[in-house]
Design a protein that fits this description.
Largest sheet: 2 strands, antiparallel
Number of strands: 2
Shape: globular
Distance between the termini: 47 Å
Strand content: 5-15%
Number of helices: 6
Radius of gyration: 18 Å
Structural class: mainly alpha
Strand order of the largest sheet: 1-2
Oligomer: single chain
Helix content: 55-70%
């Protein structure tokens, strides 16, 4: 046989590969199906959101949601900077804030209808996370953050996908 250390290393590698594949699948589904390619103009369809939540593992849902939120928030901050600032209510960050409020309403509707305790726990964790994201967007919008080097943005815990790996940054 092989030494136990070698066997454990193979088990660890297989676990990492499985989690990476699951996380990437969850994130790809969120971007393509729920947010329909990351478009700010297309509304989120409740049935698609439910399929996404109920079809993936809880930790992958949370990590994918954080990664997607980081990407969308950075895109809006950069667009606001390119506009040269301007009125808060016309900013891309404000539009994203409004979109996040709608997303939270959809999650709340789902949790009210949920009969499965396991699925309810996933939704409660997602709602908690998305409330935090909404609150951060509100602060960014009120302070008129126009670039991603601004401390109000860089102090946030940000999740990125780089080379199919999840990278977490905070300054």
């Amino acid at each position: 046989g092989i030494p136990v250390e070698v066997w454990l290393k193979k088990v660890e590698d297989a676990m990492r590969d499985t989690i990476t594949k699951s996380l990437n699948s969850t994130l790809d589904s969120l971007i393509a199906d729920v947010f329909r390619g990351g478009s700010m103009r297309k509304r989120i369809v409740p049935e698609t959101l439910e399929k996404w939540v109920y079809g993936h593992e809880g930790q992958c849902l949370i990590t994918a949601a954080q990664t997607n939120w980081t990407a969308m928030a950075e895109k809006c901050i950069e667009e606001f900077g390119e506009m040269g600032g301007g009125r808060r209510k016309s900013s891309p960050v404000y539009r994203l804030y409004k979109r996040w409020k709608k997303l939270l309403r959809k999650y709340c509707e789902m949790v009210r209808r949920c009969t499965n305790k396991f699925q309810r726990n996933k939704l409660v964790a997602l709602i908690t996370l998305e409330v935090h994201h909404r609150d951060i967007l509100r602060v960014l919008q009120m302070r008129r953050v126009q670039n991603t080097t601004n401390f109000d943005w860089s102090q946030q815990l940000r999740f990125y996908r780089e080379n199919n790996m999840c990278i977490i940054r905070q300054t």
